[in-house]
Amino acid sequence: MLNGLKAALAYFATVFLAGFVFGAVRVLVVVPHVGDEFAVLIELPFMLTLSWFACASIAVRFSVPAMIAPRMVMGSVAFVLLMAAEANLSIFAVGRTLAQHLETLLTMASLLGLAGQVAFALFPVIQIARRRSAERPLADAPE
Fold it and tell me: Alpha-carbon torsion 130, 110, 69, 65, what sign?
């Protein structure tokens, strides 16, 4: 369980840092040209790809067992840390109240981002499910 918590912290930190950089580029460079929603749609595949590979690498590095419970801990703790960090940035760096921050989550761009963050949280479990299905022999395969 401790490995899952350490992995969650590393997973969160890696993706949050990348998201901070990508987000700055998105807001400062891309949004003025294409708008919020399209800018998020451009950024999302890059963030999801980075998250996928970071998840796999960190799970191996911290020896997180390929079992549902430790992988759920990794993903859910990383997700909670990500949501808390975003709320804190919104409140302390941007100067919003908690209510204003929560209100911003109702925009289409934020909902698209949230969908990506939910995928980020599910990646640790999806990766073991994917690996397990790849290891199973196909029932209909010719012998």
Answer: positive
